[in-house]
Amino acid sequence: MVEVLVAVAIIAVLATLGTSAVFAGLSRAKQVHCANNMRQIGVALTAHAVENNGFFPETTHTVAVNRAWIAALEDEMGPNYDELRLCPADPFKEERRERGGTSYILNSYIFVPEIGPFGEELSSPCNNMQCIEEPARTLMAFIVSEGQTVEATMDHTHSRGWTRSWENVLRDIQPDRHRTGRPNDDHSRGSANYLFIDGHVETWKASDAKQRIESGENFAEPPHLRENT
Length: 229
Prior knowledge:
By secondary structure, the chain is an alpha+beta fold.
């Protein structure tokens, strides 16, 4: 009887380890797929800019949904448009598909003007390829927060409010999109993909992103602005 119980215990442990490995492998596959989507979105955004005197498309902050970037890129993204705008790890991807939304949102520092308390424009976005000084260090897009609406209007961040506020970051983006198991309370376990202006994608640990924000570094801010403040 003791030998049987030991054998059952060993089988249970091995089954648990095997299940964990399977889930980890699936999570990694979705992360790679998501990164590829982001690269292709970067290519489409750049192609649009090349055809429009260097200007990237706008967000729903300044134009109607049917003219904003995710709709404007349908031709550039081709027949895989519906798949490219959705992250395979996004639990709300089907709702976003139906509502014309996207799993990826653009950096407001680049695409959205800064508006003052009385509606005045405090600064213009640098949404032209010619005015971005360090494209390899300037973030273009993130993975949208699962706490945000699935509507097409949620297509850009509010990055100027991220400085020293991890809570504000979590309102916009999902830094732990790629993980196994349930999220922890502050979403610092797991990782996410980040698209840069030059088209490359980096994967950051959520804990590292949190540390950078809490140390005072707003990584969404373009380097030339960040280093001059």
